[in-house]
Amino acid sequence: MAAPKKGRSARAQSRPGRALVLILIAIAALTGGMFASGHTTPRLGIDLAGGTSITLTAKNEPGQPNAINKTNMDTAVDIMNRRVNGLGVSEAEVQTQGSDNIIVNIPKGTNSKQAREQVGTTAKLYFRPVLTTEISGADASASPSPSASGGSKATDKATSSASPSSSASPSSSVTPSATATSQGRAVTDALKADASPSASSTASSSASSDASPAPSGSADPATAKLQAEYAALDCTDKADRAKAGDGAKPADPTVACGQNSSGQWQKYVLGPAEVAGTDIKKAGAVFDTQTAAGWKVTMDFTSSGSKKFAAITGKLAQQQPPQNQFAIVLDGEVVSDPSVSQSLSGSAEISGSFTQTEAQDLANMLKYGALPLSFKESSVTTVTAALGGEQLHAGLIAGAIGLALVVLYLVIYYRGLSVIAIASLLVSAILTYVLMALLGPAIGFALNLPAVCGAIVAIGITADSFIVFFERIRDEIREGRSLRPAVERAWPRARRTILVSDFVSFLAAAVLFIVTVGKVQGFAFTLGLTTVLDVVVVFFFTKPLMTILARKKFFANGHPWSGLDPKRLGAKPPLRRTRRPSAPVDTKEA
């Protein structure tokens, strides 16, 4: 059994060129991918490239005067950081300033508008029953035959055997030409039907708009206020849309705006929230391959959320339009208002004219949860990279000096072996640069000053691996072995040492990445990446190249400039046993 094993080992040792070809192909493929993608330089962080700094100020919620506290602010920072920072290496910085401000720094090259929406959007999601709705403002006069329940921009479907229709039948209770009095009557009747927080109370109301107006004194103050808000609401006005439903609690009826599939603005009176965003277990953006309708957002409910969703849809299914609809309200705006024909549960999806980015952003906000506070943008400023550029220049000079000293040491001490070490360092540098350039668009990696420091530290880690291997080879030569067997005997011992050393470095980088935030994660990520690349380079480049050069006379014969001269290393005589000649016998003495 030993002979075949030895044969396989000999064949593996005799073909080191395969490993070299493999790593050269990998370098060529990665470099080609870098040029093909158009990202030929690493994406720089805000300290090196500049960017945008956004100051967000927390707003007190109605009825919650003490909502702005350290706990809620820290929670908001954590959610914002997860929204914009992905793996934590995209260099977006989110931190508190004072008691009610959050500073968000977004590096140049990032879609600042998209990032601002991610951090500034509260993402409070509610499912509310629709009490009444109509085309609003100028859109009402522009529409020749408006529908009272014309449906919002997106439609909702549940994962049931029968999906609800995305539009409802026109309701005669409210039309765009209705007077403020008839609007008030429609609101009053709807609210009477929805007197309790439960959506089941919507079952008894379907009053028509031609009924005589109710006396103004018959409505309670809250209803009268809601009537006035609904009558005055013009959803085509941006300022009105921003104020719609402002201060309303989840348990209270409210007014809201939404855009239908025709691009027209509708205004709504909505009942109390029946399902909240906290009842969503997970959300994702997927492309609708069945209908090719574009991107949609899927939502899976928790067990309690599924029960709530089944209850509300079961009750709404018994109503007449538009009160058989429920509105999906995100941060006060209706993004969907599907009608319901049966009880549904499990999961739901929001579909419509979403782009991929819009669907992913909405899913991202729903997945990471709503911010505990509402924020307003206090300031947006541009950050210059002048200071970071100076620090980078100084850091690169320091790195160049360190690299030059390492190369000088290798040349003086290891002589010919320094060629292998320098070539390996060059391969490691190429792989590091290409991967950093590709990871920018792939995972949002941004090169900042700590990441540059991590790359400089990696020079020492990589050089240490070569030194371990070279010293093992020298130890074998000192024992009297020739170069080729010395390389093969030294490799298993050096390999174990290199793997243990790199494992410790990678473990330290992983722990540092997990327990830290911000720029320190960039240092940890770069250190971990270069540590993995060190193993790849040593196994697939340094060792095969050393095996090939060991066959060359310059190294095999121990040339004084090869770095493997047996005399300079103090080698022992060859490990050979010879018989000593016997002493001559004196015949006379014998």
pLDDT under 50 segments (min length 5)? 1-12, 144-183, 195-217
Q: What integer value in Å does the Rg equal?
A: 36 Å
User: What is the percent of helical residues?
Assistant: 40-55%
Please state the average pLDDT score: 76
Structural class: alpha+beta
- Total strand segments: 14
Taking strands numbered 1, 2, ... along the chain, how are they ordered across the largest sheet?
4-7-6-12-11
User: Outline, from the CA principal axes?
Assistant: elongated
| Total helical segments | 18
Euclidean distance between termini CA atoms: 54 Å
Give the percentage of residues in beta strands: 15-25%
Largest sheet: 5 strands, mixed, barrel
Summary tags:
18 helices, 16% strand, five-stranded mixed beta barrel, elongated, single chain, four-stranded antiparallel β-sheet, 14 strands, disordered N terminus, 590 residues, alpha+beta
How would you describe this structure to a colleague?
- This protein is of the alpha+beta class.
- It has helices at 2-13, 17-37, 46-49, 70-85, 112-120, 137-142, 180-193, 221-232, 238-243, 303-316, 356-368, 386-414, 417-443, 449-478, 483-515, 519-549, 553-556, 566-569; strands spanning 51-59, 93-97, 101-107, 125-135, 155-158, 254-259, 265-270, 275-276, 280-288, 294-301, 326-330, 333-336, 347-354, 374-383.
- The protein is 48% helix and 16% strand.
- The strands form 3 sheets. It has a 5-stranded mixed beta barrel with strand order 4-7-6-12-11. Strands 2-3-1-14 form a 4-stranded antiparallel β-sheet. A 4-stranded antiparallel β-sheet has the order 5-13-10-9.
- Helix 4 (70-85) packs antiparallel against helix 5, helix 13 packs antiparallel against helix 16 (519-549) and helix 14 (449-478) packs parallel to helix 16 (519-549).
- The longest helix has 33 residues, at 483-515.
